[in-house]
Every structure is written in structure tokens, then in C-alpha cells.
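Standup notes
- HV: blocked on the assembly model, inputs below
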Amino acid sequence: MTHELRMKVRDYECDLQGIVNNANYQHYTEHARHEMLLGLGVSFADLHQRGIDVVVARISLSYKAPLRSGDEFLVRSEVRKEGVKYVFRQDIIRLSDNRLSCRVEVVNAVLIDGKLAAECPELDRLLS
Amino acid sequence: MTHELRMKVRDYECDLQGIVNNANYQHYTEHARHEMLLGLGVSFADLHQRGIDVVVARISLSYKAPLRSGDEFLVRSEVRKEGVKYVFRQDIIRLSDNRLSCRVEVVNAVLIDGKLAAECPELDRLLS
Amino acid sequence: MTHELRMKVRDYECDLQGIVNNANYQHYTEHARHEMLLGLGVSFADLHQRGIDVVVARISLSYKAPLRSGDEFLVRSEVRKEGVKYVFRQDIIRLSDNRLSCRVEVVNAVLIDGKLAAECPELDRLLS
Amino acid sequence: MTHELRMKVRDYECDLQGIVNNANYQHYTEHARHEMLLGLGVSFADLHQRGIDVVVARISLSYKAPLRSGDEFLVRSEVRKEGVKYVFRQDIIRLSDNRLSCRVEVVNAVLIDGKLAAECPELDRLLS
């Protein structure tokens, strides 16, 4: 299951080094994951309202080539289930030269009413 | 009713011009307002849980002298009630030279269960 | 001189009240102003590199109807020159119901090599 | 070489799940690293001005227990050199119950005039 989202750097996301601040790559990939879910008919905010919280248990980001003011980029996401976890692998591709800017792996757990859930039928259905 | 909060610039709050990005002054003053309320025994998050939302109806910010990496500053806040609105006047003072960095006026309304409330006894009690 | 930019709320922009945090409207309008300039061939980052800084002297925001998770919106911007200042008037329109979400007025000054400039030929040319 | 920084959640850092948004833990640890350097007499912003950029090559964050509105926390940082990289290990401790909230490992590289540097005498001196 894969998904692509095209985005563009906003200047306020750049820091005093003149490049996008590291934490914003995490924001980009969060937004891409939520848009991917939304494309499948699942809203992160609606899930929360119903007591289902998809939470990040672990994330790792490898920074390869910085994004700068004006850059457009693609967030390419894929997800698979591993045990009770949902694992997203996401690449941020800088479109000016198609270079990999950042590679991200995110391990998500699901909490139902605040408790770790062994499965989330709603997400499982989407992934099958 | 006045309140003072001492803070320090975090580097990620600076943008590519090397100064604190404008929107972060709004963050600083929001945090100072919430700390002011907390000092009076009122938690913004608790209010929300109980269906009471203090929302900004209008804010104006006048930027006088920029904050930069490493700067410490003071947010000096005062609040008064005007009709059904709570009006905060907040000054951000740069501590290296005691210059006014930013002057802010914030008009807050109170929503109870999503409806504009003519009064919020809890806040009124604090202001009297 | 007018400009329109279509955007979409990202979930991380919402706060614990479940609506877009106030400071993010300032981010949205900053991005729209920079995109407007870019459409005219002027990059905010390039200007900074050449010692020209467009800075916000004053901004006021009137919040009318909140943006929430999933909302799409339009930022409609117009700019005119008043004396030595560039004044932007910006409306954020919530697209689900075409309601005005936020009305913003921004007064910009231009610094050249850190000094307030009476005029910026580059911007003046664009506005004429 | 270790460092501790005490901080407090600001409400705008919480998202619609009512907990601190994941990317903000990255912000907290960046701020703690910069404060650690500053305590050693090295300013991140000054380094940048002189053409020396400390950049994150890789970061991993393990989320253990969420931070919420009002929480105070400690960022405990230690750094060591491994080859040409500076490796920070950082723990975010929630002070209400002394639980580990987030464990972070950050691998930094140094760019001098935009090129990967085998060593940064200024930082090496601090670590010896």
C-alpha cells in the first residue's frame, strides 16, 4: 500500500541555517500519513473522537540532502503491519534533482480508550 | 492584574532572516496568558475538558525590535474585562537592553459548549 | 494586485481545543505573501541574501470561524503601498461553507542592510 | 559530558490528541543540545555565521510516555565522539512521576563551508 503527496517548503519552516528545520520533516511525514489514511476513508481526528488513537512508538529520520526555501518535494509512503504495529516507510524526494532528502521509518501503535490494542479492525481492513 | 514570565529564544524559533519568526511572538504571548491563568488556579486544558473554551477573537502585534538566538525576554501581561470580552495587553521586553520588542493586544471571548458566553463566572471571579 | 492560494489544514497545526492554533493563521498568511511575491518573480530568501529584508511592522488578525482537521481554505491577498509601508489585506476563506475564517492586515517595512528604507525599487516596480 | 535542562510544556505544543505533538520532542532535544553547547561557550548561531554548521545526520526517537499540558520535564543529554560524528543520547524525563517520556539518539555531522568536515577543532576541544 503506497501513497504519494506533493508539498512545498514554506519559508517559516526554515531556520537560521537557511534550511528546513529538522523537526519539520517529521511534520511533513505525519501530514502524509494522515492524508494517506484520509484517502482510505479514515480520518485521524475522527478516530480520536471515537477513542482510537494512532500514536508513534518510534521514529527514525536519516537526513540526506536539505530542503530549502522554494523547494518542492514528494513524500512517498508505504505501510505494512508487523505484529501489532503499523510500520510506515517514507521517503522525502527533493523534486529539483530527484534526490532523496530524508528517509523515515515510523512505528505506530494503536491505543483504544488509552490502552494498547492488539489490533485495530478499521486499519487492518484497509491494509488487507 | 499583572503577570510576568521570563523566557528565552529557542533556535528553532528563528527563521532564515536569523530572527524569531513573527508567529512565534504569538506563541510566546499565548504561553504567558496560560501561565498567568495557571497561577490563578485555572488550567486552559481543564477548562476545555469542561466545555469552556477561551478563544482569541482578535489579536494585534506591533513589532519593535527583533529577538535573536540566545536572547532572553520578559512577557509582561495584564488583563481587564471589557463588556463580555477579556482583553490582555502584553509587552515582550528584550532583556539584553530592556527594549520593547513587541506589543500585543489580545481580545478573548469565552465559548461554553461552543456558544459565545456573556460571562464566565470562573474567570470573572479571578479578575475581581 | 491580488493573489489566491489554496491550502489545507495539517493535523499538527491543530491544538488541544481541536482547532487550528491561532499562530498558524499567521503562518498561513506569511506563506501566501511569499508565494504572491514569488509569483511576481521575487523570492523572500533571495531578497534576504542580497541584504533586503521585508519585515512585519504590525499585524492584526480577527478570528471569525475556526479551521479544523481536514478543512481546505483559500488565502486571498491584496497589497498596496501606503507611504513607505507595504500593506497586505488577507482573507482566509473556509471552503466547506465559504465563510470568512480570519481577516488579516499586515503592515510591512523594508530594511536594506538592516536600515529602514524609504523605498524598495524592486517591490515598487511590482506594484506599479 | 552531560547536561540537564528543565522545561515545561507549552499548550500550543499539544495537538488534537491532547498530548505534545511528536515533532516537538525533537524541538525540545534540539534546544537542549544548543543550550549544552552554549554552556560550553559555543553558540550554534555564531558557528553558522562563521561557516560552521552542525547538522543532524540521523535521529531516532522512542516515545514511552506522553507529555501533556502543564507537564514539567527534564532533558538529560550526553555527547561523545564516534569517528567524525558527534553522537548525543538524550532522555526526556516527565517530572510528575520521573518516568522516561522519550529516548532520543542524534548523530550530528559538521559542515564547514558546506563540506563535510572530518573534524571540528572547536567542538573536539570541548569534548576532551
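- HV (later): unblocked. Helices of chain A lie at 22-39, 44-49, 121-127. Chain A touches chain C through 16 residues (CB under 8 Å).
- Next: hand off to the docking folks.
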